């Protein structure tokens, strides 16, 4: 009655709402709701609530350069991932002379003294020149076939990839030096045949690109790092600093038999003349030879004023007497390389041949007198040639004018000896002992000894 002003529709709607309210009140639903809430609370009190684990988001580890972390690839799969060396584990080597103290001096000082004593003793002995001529090919091939590899002549001498090697000229003791990519120099007395026969020294901060025993005094071991050239003098037990550069050294060779002067190449293409007799650590001359990159330099064995430089696709002969800072022109060029050249070397006795290794998987033999290419052949003469390792170097055997050695990726793993005619004379292999590529090879100047170094720091002595 109090809603007489409403329309008929609104009065009917209000009546329905009132009747519905009375109906739900009669059902007493609020009591049922309270009862259900009470039962639910009571049941939950007997239930142990398990803590919900927090969701952990797994972040993908950022990719890092193995080269910058100084983690070396191995030749076989490991069961456990090796620990990555920390930066502080390999501090920068200080400038100036360094004492010839090995990394493990505190534990094996007596064995180190024995090794250095052996090096000093054998350096005082003079080699017998009675039979130093080049043997004929048949006799030489027979001597190659007699050389074998045994387990005791395999040793991990340095910690990382072998970048360079040198073998002492002694005829009584086999002493091998190896340089790796972390600046370590390992000395191994192979003739010792014991665990104490090898020790590691750290004369460089970066990889050791080239090593030579002095041609007139094998008590001196010269090693070339990326930024410094050092001379390890065992008579004074010190690594002297001969030359230092802001650039990046790649290779060196002696310009005379006394070993006093050397030609040194830079990765950026320049070459430098270094004289060990002058004070200071600067080169005598730095010369731009027009190369974008210079990987190896090699001095002619007879005419020491000539040296061979190999770079990106350039292989040229220069005269050191006419080098100047700019505008140098080569005496001759060995053309035909279309990809990066890994190495170029004169033959050891007369220098009448040059062997080059190119990334196009070809070995080239040149006549250095009239600079004519005599032979171009694939490294593998069997059905389909396998790809060669880009860092493989072909080195002449100092005992044989017409033969050189080179690493191979063929299976089984082997080191090969070629004649300058392209004939494969011999393959050094051992299925049980040699299972990796030996990209760095060195041969003894007078004995039937060949050493191959691999990417994990191991040396194999045939």
UniProtKB/TrEMBL annotation:
GO terms for molecular function: DNA binding. Keywords: Repeat, WD repeat. GO terms for cellular component: nucleus. GO terms for biological process: regulation of DNA damage checkpoint. InterPro entries: WD40/YVTN_repeat-like_dom_sf, WD40_repeat_dom_sf, WD40_rpt, WD_repeat_DNA-damage-binding. It comes from the Eukaryota. Belongs to the WD repeat DDB2/WDR76 family. PANTHER family: WD REPEAT-CONTAINING PROTEIN 76. Specifically binds 5-hydroxymethylcytosine (5hmC), suggesting that it acts as a specific reader of 5hmC. Interacts with CUL4A and/or CUL4B. This is WD repeat-containing protein 76. It comes from Polioptila caerulea.
């Amino acid at each position: 009655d109090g809603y007489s002003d409403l329309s008929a529709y609104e009065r009917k709607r209000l009546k329905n709402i009132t009747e519905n309210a009375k109906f739900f009140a009669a059902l007493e639903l609020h009591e049922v709701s309270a009862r259900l809430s009470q039962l639910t609370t009571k049941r939950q009190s007997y239930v142990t609530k398990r803590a919900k684990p927090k969701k952990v988001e797994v972040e993908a580890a950022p990719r890092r350069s193995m080269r910058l972390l100084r983690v070396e690839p191995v030749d076989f799969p490991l069961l456990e991932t090796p620990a990555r060396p920390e930066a502080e584990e390999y501090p920068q080597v200080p400038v100036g002379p360094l004492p010839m103290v090995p990394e493990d001096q505190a534990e094996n000082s007596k064995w180190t003294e024995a090794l250095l004593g052996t090096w000093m003793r054998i350096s005082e002995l003079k080699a017998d020149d009675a039979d130093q001529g080049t043997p004929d090919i048949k006799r030489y091939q027979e001597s190659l076939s007699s050389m074998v590899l045994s387990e005791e002549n395999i040793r991990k001498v340095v910690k990382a990839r072998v970048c360079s090697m040198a073998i002492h000229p002694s005829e009584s003791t086999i002493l091998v030096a190896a340089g790796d990519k972390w600046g370590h120099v390992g000395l191994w007395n192979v003739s010792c045949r014991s665990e104490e026969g090898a020790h590691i020294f750290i004369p460089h901060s970066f990889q050791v690109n080239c090593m030579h025993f002095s041609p007139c005094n094998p008590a001196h071991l010269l090693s070339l790092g990326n930024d410094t050239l050092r001379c390890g003098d065992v008579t004074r037990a010190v690594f002297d600093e001969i030359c230092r550069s802001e650039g990046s050294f790649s290779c060196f060779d002696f310009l005379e038999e006394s070993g006093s002067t050397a030609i040194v190449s830079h990765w950026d293409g320049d070459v430098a003349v270094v004289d060990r007799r002058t004070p200071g650590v600067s080169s005598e001359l730095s010369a731009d030879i027009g190369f974008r990159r210079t990987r190896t330099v090699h001095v002619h064995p007879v005419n020491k004023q000539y040296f061979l430089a190999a770079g990106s696709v350039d292989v040229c002969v220069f005269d050191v007497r006419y080098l100047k800072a700019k505008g140098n022109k080569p005496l001759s060029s060995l053309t035909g390389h279309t990809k990066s050249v890994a190495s170029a070397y004169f033959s050891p006795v007369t220098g009448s041949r040059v062997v080059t290794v190119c990334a196009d998987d070809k070995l080239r033999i040149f006549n250095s007198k009239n600079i004519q290419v005599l032979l171009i052949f694939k490294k593998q003469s069997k059905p389909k040639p396998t790809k060669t390792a880009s860092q493989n170097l072909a080195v002449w055997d100092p005992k044989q004018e017409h033969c050189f050695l080179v690493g191979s990726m063929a299976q089984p793993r082997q080191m090969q000896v070629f004649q300058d005619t392209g004939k494969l004379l011999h393959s050094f292999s051992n299925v049980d002992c040699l299972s990796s590529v030996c990209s760095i090879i060195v041969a003894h100047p007078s004995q039937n000894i060949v050493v191959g170094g691999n990417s994990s720091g191991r040396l194999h002595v045939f």
